[in-house]
Each structure stands twice: as structure tokens, then as C-alpha cells.
Amino acid sequence: MSGPVLAPEVSEALAAGRPVVALESTIISHGLPWPDNLDLARAVEEEVRAGGAVPATIAVIDGTLRAGLDAEALERLARAEGIAKLSRADLAVCIARGGTGATTVAATMIAAARAGIAVFATGGIGGVHRGAERSFDVSADLQELAQTPVTVVASGAKAILDLPKTLEMLETLGVPVIAYGQSGFPAFWARESGLAAPLRMDAPAEIARAHLTRAGLGLPGGQLVANPIPAEAEIPLDELEGLIAQAQREAEAAGATGKAVTPALLDRLRALTQGRTLAANAALVRANARLGAAVAQEIARQRAEGAPPRAGPL
Ligand code: PSU
Ligand code: MN
């Protein structure tokens, strides 16, 4: 089995058991506009470093799956010329054809797991779309969380999704959903969705121990850590509700399907809020990078201590 080609810094850190945090690239190419996306991609890597871990941004560049990108690759993704959006279904095909593409949460998890990276930080995961009972639009990110052993730090699922259905699906798939520092499930731009989170943890060490224990049990799959957006950056849900419904109607009327749905909704909401969702998005991704670094540090520390996952007989 082949994994991603590692940047020297990433490979050295992994070999030495030092903390590494994977970062996705679809948020750069398809999630945010140029040039804010490049600024944010750099800032997020800096947050990971400031948190004491090594960042490993993941993408396919000219047919090579990479973990850890140089400045040129990052800028190419941000300019998004000829950049495909790669989920689980697209990864091998893009590599086989020598193409270039940005990885979604699902594809980034696959690459991280192959590289031996335990933690991945991003903005929001994909989930069950509103109207999924008609469209069947359910992100491959959910299935990936069920089968690939990576702890994903996000700010919940985007409020453009059907959050109750997304939580139900995660429960069905056996994915631990852990709200960080509060009892409610966050809704991306808003700290609270009004829904209770299935689990709550208040310390990175606790999240790290749960990650290692799950691996020790031989259970496939990862965990979702839902970190609420910093209070000063949040946009309360009631302010967004009408605009989300409008963006949704417009996307449906324009015939957006498949991969195009999420980028179209995010783009429209940015315009409808005069850029407020963009500023909020930047703040929450940075906060998630910080928390991801703290969790990665704890996993590295607990592994070094040889902390045996305390699993009794099954
Ligand atoms: N969160 C954002 N912006 C994004 C995404 C998430 O703030 O662009 C991306 C992630 O890469 C996620 C993907 O994996 O959207 C989900 O797309 P889909 O619904 O097509 O599976
Ligand atoms: Mn979809």
C-alpha cells in the first residue's frame, strides 16, 4: 500500500513521534475565494506550528499525493486553475491520470491515515444535505469517519446542511461526535445548533485517550471533535437561517448537483452576508488548527509514555 509523499519536515516529525496535523486543500481551492484562501492556508499552517505541531496540507499535485506542500503548490491550489475536488471516489483516478486536485475531508483522512497522521483539522465536514430525502445528497465524509482512523477537528457540520439528519447518520455509522468544552453541537458559524452533542470532552488529553483506546479496541474509523467557533467571531443561527434557505433555493433552481452543491452554497452565502461568513470561517479554522495541534501533542505524549489503551476482553 502506498501513502502520500511526505515533505521532509513531516517525515522527520513522524519518524521521531512528534505531533503532526493534517490539513485539507478543498477549503483552499473550492471553499474560499482568492486571495483570502491563500492567506488563510498560510495562517492555518502557522497556527499548527504555534501549537507545537507540524502542518501537513494534503493534495494531489501533478499525479503525486502529497502531505506537506511547498509555497508554489499552495498558491496553485489557491488560484484554483484546473484544480479538481477529490473525495474518496476520485483520488486514485486523479493520481492515475497525473492530475492535480484538492482533497476533501474524506480524501484528506485517507491520506493522513496512510501517512500515520492521527489528527486532521478543518472548518466543517460535509454531511446530509437539506432535502436529502429527495436528492440523496450525503457527503462521503460521513462514511470516511466510520472507516478511517483519524480524529477530525471541525466546527461541527456546516449550517447549510440538515444537522439533525447528519447527527443521526453519524450515530448509525458508529462515529463518536464530541463537542469540545460545551454540551451542544456547534453549527459552524454559530456556537450552538440547538441540538445536544452525543459526547462532550473538555481537554485535549481526554480526546487523545479516546483516540488511542478506539485504535486499541481494533475498531475502524475516527472521531469527530466539534469545536465551537470563537465567541467574538460567531454569527448566530437565526441571522443566517433565511439566507441559507435562499441560497439553497437558488442552488436547486440553478440545477446544482453533486460536488458543485457545497461550493455554490458557500459562495452565495458569502455574497449574501457581505463577507461575514468568510471572516467567521477564517476564525474557526484557525481555532481548530490550534486544538488539533493540542490533541496531536497529547497523542504523541501518551504514545511515548506507552499508555496501553485500556481495553478489556471484548
Ligand atoms: N468546509 C468549508 N468549506 C469547504 C468544505 C468544508 O468551510 O469547502 C469542503 C470540505 O472539503 C468537505 C467538502 O469535505 O466541502 C464536502 O463536500 P461534499 O458535500 O461535496 O462532500
Ligand atoms: Mn454531496
From TrEMBL:
Substrate binds at residues 85, 105, 139-141. Its cofactor is Mn(2+). Its EC number is 4.2.1.70. It catalyses: D-ribose 5-phosphate + uracil = psi-UMP + H2O. GO terms for biological process: nucleobase catabolic process. InterPro entries: Indigdn_synthA-like, PsuG. Binds 1 Mn(2+) ion per subunit. This is Pseudouridine-5'-phosphate glycosidase. Belongs to the pseudouridine-5'-phosphate glycosidase family. The active site is at 24 (proton donor), 158 (nucleophile). It comes from the Bacteria. GO terms for cellular component: cytoplasm. Mn(2+) binds at residue 137. Homotrimer. The keyword Transmembrane helix does not apply. HAMAP family: PsiMP_glycosidase. GO terms for molecular function: hydrolase activity, acting on glycosyl bonds; metal ion binding; pseudouridylate synthase activity. Catalyzes the reversible cleavage of pseudouridine 5'-phosphate (PsiMP) to ribose 5-phosphate and uracil. Functions biologically in the cleavage direction, as part of a pseudouridine degradation pathway. Keywords: Glycosidase, Hydrolase, Lyase, Manganese, Metal-binding.
